[in-house]
Structure formats: structure tokens, C-alpha cells
Amino acid sequence: MLTWRVRCLAWLTMLLLLSVCPTGAVQIPAGMHTCSSLAECLKLLDGVASTAGPGMGPEEEEIRQVLKQFGEPAKHELLRRAAGTDRGWRDLAGAILWGWDSWTPSDVPELRSALLKDPGGWLARPLGEIGTPEAIRALVEDLPKGSENQTDFALAKLGPKAIPFLMPLLEREKTAKSAQRIIAEMDDSALPVASRWAKRATDPSQPMRVRLAALRGIAAFGSRAKPSSETLPALLSSPDPALRTETESTLKATRNPAVIHQVTRSCYPRAGQFDPLAIDAVLCLREIAAYGEDARSGGQDLLPFLSSKNGDERAAGITTLAAIGYKSALPQIEATLSSPDWRVTYAAVRGIGWLGDKEALPDLQKVASSHWLPEVRDEATRTMAALQSPKGRLEGTWKFIPSQGVGEHFEVDHEILGKAPSCRSQRWAWNGATFKLRPHQPGPDAQGSMSLLLSGGKLEGTNHGEFGGTLTWKSLDRNTKSEVIFRDDVVGMANDGDGAMVLFGLAHMGLAYGYVLRVIRTSDDDWKLSEVARLPAEGEALTTLAPGTFAALSRDRVVVFTRTRILGTAACAAP
């Protein structure tokens, strides 16, 4: 359980950090707009330079307009300070000079000196604007020192002009990734070089370092270079192991179907039964789905996902098999329409639509009329309409991450939910009775703990948010050690006679899940755990409605369930 949590949160943290851009702008000193000489203006800036950071804001633009009136002397004085020993002045000078515009090839040596002091900094952009061989060499010299910075931007914008200067980096394994990162960001004007690289890679008269570099360059273009990779599969039988390895990597990067079986056979169910996010499986299944119908021949390798004990893996497996058009999986996909996990049912409904399975219409009608979750009912209705339309199928367009734009979510999780109306009264109605249920608030201790007395001891649950929690058994016998039953954040517990209903859940950085496990102590003092309810989003509270009937709150929805199945959702009641 700790493994998936660490991987998931690290992944989400990385995405968040990449989206943050600090400004680090300085305050414009008093008198800046009226200073009459370059020396006077620079003296004013001496007082604020120490507060400058690596970022940039409108303040630096205003300062630039003031200093540009002093022409070339101002530019060269700023370049001198950009290459100096004062870190604050280096940052400030770079941010001012970034948009100076009047650059000539004679400025390259000074710009290079400044960039050496601030790898990947703002002065990479003027070098890119100059674009002479000397300027490009200065950028390439700086490239291996950083990642995803201004040097990247400048080289990528140069496109085909930069390619010859990146080749030496591609030839060395230690620097190849830096060059590949740049090539991946280039627009399609650089794409014709991929065909030339393919000829070099397959030419046995070329030095091996050149052939390997060509393969790495093709791989950097990703699927855009798929047409250029058509001649590369022959290299998989090369006697040279390095060439075979690089070829396989390149074919995977370009999504060439020649390696689809290697890709599908390395992707298999591995998540625990109750893991809320099967991150390893989702990542490899996304990659397979991106092959589209070219992955269809590997569909047989993915069938184990349909019998995975983990619901997230089953849903992702169904989505992938449907995305690649593997119709042989339809009988097994149809069988999952009755799954107790709403994510699996949703994926099955959508997958049946993508595959154009009209024989499933009667079963889809049952889902549309009786499933407890409105979004699943709506998806079934949408799929039926598509199957009965002239096209005879549901159009499948999906996105892997939100930044990729409009499309359906690949994963089936809380992101596909509509917004449920808020129940201000926090009173709910079910079968003619009303009850209160509001989000659980952790106790006064920092651990957010709770306990539930059972025969022979008590269950204790902790909730540490993103740092995880535990469900622990503490026997009344003081000579018996505490036993950790399960690891995840405990949100609520309810007595169930011979055991307990335990609600787990978390909402953190785009991750939101909730589920209820029935926890029973067996006759041989072991523990049996079974999932009785997978909630739409994060678990927030749990209560008992009647013996054997319970309700859990999840993002303005109250799910009512028994020991074996979900009955439906409660309605908001008037105060």
C-alpha cells in the first residue's frame, strides 16, 4: 500500500512543480523613470539588485525601457554584470536583457560568458535570436548542464538549424537525453531529418556511434517519426547488442507495431486488491492505448487485466482493449457490466460503445435504468444512442493528462463525475427515514485517530492524509502485540456484529478516492477483508442506518449499502 501511495504522490507532485513558475521580480526603485544618466540609473538599481530572483515580471520590462535609451553602453554594462560575481545582479541583468532585441553576432562572446554563470538562464534567448553557428555552439555547450530551461526553448525554436550541432550529443549516451529533450520540443519543420537518420541507422557502412545517434534522434520525435521508422525493424536481428537495444527503444518511442508484443508482454496486473490507484498498470496501458489499432495483435496479452482483483486495473484494461479495437475481448467486457465497482462498469459501457457491440444493447438498457450512479446511467444512455446511430459506434477520443486538451479521461475516476448539488442541511432521506451525515472531523489529537470496540479488543484507525494511515487491532490481552490489519487513511468505522465496516479515503493533489471494507476476525484469529462499496470520490463519513445497512458520504453524495452490495444514493432532505 505504501508503494502505490509514494509513486502516486511523487508523480502528482512532479506535475504540480512543473506548472509553477516563480516571478522573483524586483521593485522599481524611486527615481528610476527620471534618472538622467546610465551611471545614475545603475546606482539606483544597485539598491534593489540583491532582491532579484531567477524569475521575471513587468518590473524588469519597465526598467528595460528606461535603460534602452542609453543604447549600446547600457547593453554592454548589463552583460558585464550578467557575467559578474553578484548573484542578484546576474539575475536582474539577465531578466532585463532578455527582451533587449538589438543583438548582433558580435555580442555572442559576452552572452556566452553570462550564460556560463547562469546555465539555462534568460540570456539563452538572445543567443537563439542571433542564431549563428557560434551562438548555437554556445547554447549546445550549456545544454547538458540543465533541463527544461531557456536554453531548451532557444534551441527548440531554432529547429533544423540546431540539429547538426546536437548530433555530437546524440552520439554520447551521457548527453543524448539532453539533445533528445530539445528535439522532442521542435515543431514539424525539423521532422524531415528523421528520414535521413533512418537511412544512416540502417547503413552498415556508417560508424556505429553515428547509427546509434540517428536512432536516438528518431526516438526523440516520438510518434511523429513513425513513418520514418518503417525500415528500422530489420535492425532487431542485428548481431550488435547495442544496436538491437537502441532500435527496440526507438521503435517503442515511435510506436511502431513491430515491437507491440514486447510492450504488451511487459504490461501486466500488479496492484493490490484494494489499491485505489494502480499507477504502474495505468502508465503502461496508456502507452499501449496510444498505439491505437496497431496494438490489436497484442490484445491477447492484456486479457489478464480483465480478471485482476483490482478495480482500477480492470477498468484501465477494458479501456485499453477497446481503444485498440480488440473485439475478441467483448464477451469478457460484457460480463463486467454487472461489476459492483462503478469504475469497471463505466469502462465496460464505454468500451462496448467504442467497439460497436450492438448485441450488448439489452444489457446496456439494464445499466441505464438501474445503476445507482447517475454518471454510469448517462454513459449507458449515450452509448446506446451511438450504437443505434448510422455510425453504429461511440467515437473514442481520450486524453491522458489534462494539459493534452479536450477529450475523455483515459482513467475512470472522480474526474468523470458531474458536480452534485450541495446538501446544506446535511440531512439525508432513505426509504422514508432521515438521518444526519456530515464530513468526519479528526479528533483533537494530531493523529486523527478513532477506535471501535469489538469482542476481545478494539480496532484503531489513523488518518495522516497524504502520509497514510493504518487500521490496527489491539487485543485486550496485554501480552499480545498490536496487529496492523491494513494500511490506508481511516475515515470512519461502524460495528457490524461479527466485524466492522471501515471507510478509507483521501483527497490530495488531484487524487480522490473512497471505499468501504468489511473487516472480520476469523475463527483462527486471522482477518478477512472484502470490499463492499467503491465510492464516487473521497470517503468523508460513515454511519449505520439499520442492522446490516450503512451510508457513506462522498463529495455531496451519500451511498447506501449493505454487507454485500450498494443499494443506491440517499436524497438531500429539508432541514
For the biggest β-sheet, the strand order reads 5-6-7-8
Query: Can you tell me the CATH class of the domain at 261-416?
Result: Mainly Alpha
What value does the average pLDDT take?
91
Shape: globular
Considering the protein shown, what is the CATH homologous superfamily of the domain at 261-416? Leucine-rich Repeat Variant
Low-confidence stretches: 9-23
Strand count, sense and closure of the main sheet? 4 strands, antiparallel
Number of strand elements: 17
Helix content: 40-55%
Question: Roughly what fraction of the amino acids lie in strands?
Answer: 15-25%
Structural class comes to alpha+beta
CATH architecture designation of the domain at 261-416 = Alpha Horseshoe
CATH topology of the domain at 261-416: Leucine-rich Repeat Variant
Radius of gyration: 30 Å
Assembly context of the chains: single chain
- The number of helical elements comes to 22
What is the rounded distance between the termini?
A: 40 Å
